[in-house]
Amino acid sequence: MFKSMLDRLKTGLEKTKKQFVESFNSISFGRKIDEELFEDIEMVLLKADVGLQATEEILDFLRKESKRRKLKDGQQLKELLKEKLYEILKNCEGRLNLGDEKPAVILFLGINGSGKTTTVGKLAYQFSKEGKSVVLAAADTFRAAAIDQLEVWAERSGARIVKHSPGSDPAAVVYDAVNSAKSRGDDLVLIDTAGRLHTKEHLIKELQKIKRTIQKLMPNQPVETILVLDGTIGQNSINQAKVFKQATDVTGIVITKLDGTAKGGAIIPICKELKIPIKFIGVGEGIEDLQPFDAKAFVNALFD
Ligand SMILES: Nc1nc2c(ncn2[C@@H]2O[C@H](COP(=O)(O)OP(=O)(O)O)[C@@H](O)[C@H]2O)c(=O)[nH]1
Ligand SMILES: [Mg+2]
Predict the structure, then answer these.
(1) 0.90 exceeded by the pTM?
(2) What's the CA angle centered on 221, arms 208 and 136, to 5 degrees?
(3) Is residue 69 part of a domain?
(4) Among candidates 120, 100, 108, 115, which has minimal Cα distance to 161?
C-alpha cells in the first residue's frame, strides 16, 4: 500500500508524539490555566528533550502571552504552544542549494552510524525519480563494507557509483566523481564520507581537502555541506554538531531516525542553538522515509 508523505511523517513521529499527546491528555486541556498546568507542560517538554533553556523560554512566552490574550482554558493554551513551536521551527526550514551549474555537489558529514549512507541513498532515489542523473561518490574509504553498502543504494536508486579501493584517499574519489559527472553532464554528485577520524585536526584537514578538490573542479558552484545527526541521541547531537561546525562551513542539517525516538523535541534546541537550516528529516529505514523538513507539518504531527 502506498503511504502519503503525511502518513509517513505521522508514523515516524509516533514516539515523540506519544510523549506530547499522552502527557497532554493526562494534563487535561479542559482545565483552567493555572501554575500547575504550566508546570505540567514544562514536564512534557523536558521529557520530549526540548531542553532546559528552550523549555524555559517557551514557558515564559506561554505565561505572558496567555495573560495578554486573556486565554481561558488549557485547549487555548495548547494552540498557543503549537503557535510558538511553529514560530521557532519555521526559522530553521531550509531547502537544498544546488547552484546553477551541473553537477550540483552535496557533501555529507557526520559521525559513524548517524545515517549518512542511508540518507545519500534515499536522496539519490528521490532525485532519480525526478529524472535526474545522480552520481554517488564512495568517499568513505575506511571499510570495504561502507563501499558495498553505498553500492547497494546505487542499485536501488539507479545512480552511478564512483569508488576506489578501501583505504584510498577520499579526496581522490571525490575528484573522480565530480570530474566524471562534469564531463558526462550528470545533474548531481552526492558524496558519502567516513565519520571516524582520529582527531579534530585530522577531520578539519580531510574536509578541507575534499572541499578544495570540489571547488577546483566547480569554482562557481556552492558546496552544499550537510551534517547528518542521529535523532535518537536527542540534544546530545548539539555538541557533536558544534565540532563539525568548527571544522567546516555546514550549510544544512538532516536529522535521522526520528521514528526511533521519543526525543524528537530536541529538534527545537538543535534549531535554536545551531542556527543551521534543517533540510530533511529521516522518519524510517525505507527508501521513501526522507522528507523535506516542514515546520508546520512537523508541529501538526506532534499534536494531531
Ligand atoms: N529507523 C531509522 N533508521 C535509520 C534512519 N536513517 C538511518 N537509519 C539506520 O541507521 C543505521 C546507520 O545508518 P548508516 O547510513 O549506515 O550510517 P552512516 O555510518 O552515517 O553511514 C542503519 O542501520 C540505517 O538503516 C531513519 O531515518 N530511521
Ligand atoms: Mg556510511
Answers:
(1) yes
(2) 70
(3) yes
(4) 120
What is the share, in percent, of the chain residues with pLDDT greater than 90? 78
CA of 282 to the centre of ligand 1 (A): 9
CATH number for 192: 3.40.50.300
In this predicted model, what pLDDT tens digit does every residue of 97-133 receive, in sequence order? 999 999 999 999 999 999 999 999 999 999 999 999 9
Would residue 96 count as lying in a domain?
Answer: no
pLDDT digits (tens, 9 = 90+) for 139-165: 999 888 999 999 999 999 999 999 999
Note whether 18 and 123 are same-domain residues.
no
DSSP for 93-135, please give it. Answer: B------SSSSEEEEEE--TTSSHHHHHHHHHHHHHHTT--EE
Atom 26 of ligand 1 has which residue's CA nearest to it?
A: 257
**What distance in angstroms lies between residue 85's CA and the mean position of ligand 2's atoms?**
32
Mutate to test the pocket of ligand 1, among 9, 108, 227, 285 (most ligand atoms within 8 A of CB): 285
How many structural domains compose the chain? 2
Q: Which domain holds residue 38?
A: 5-90
Cα 197 to ligand 2 centroid, rounded to whole Å: 13
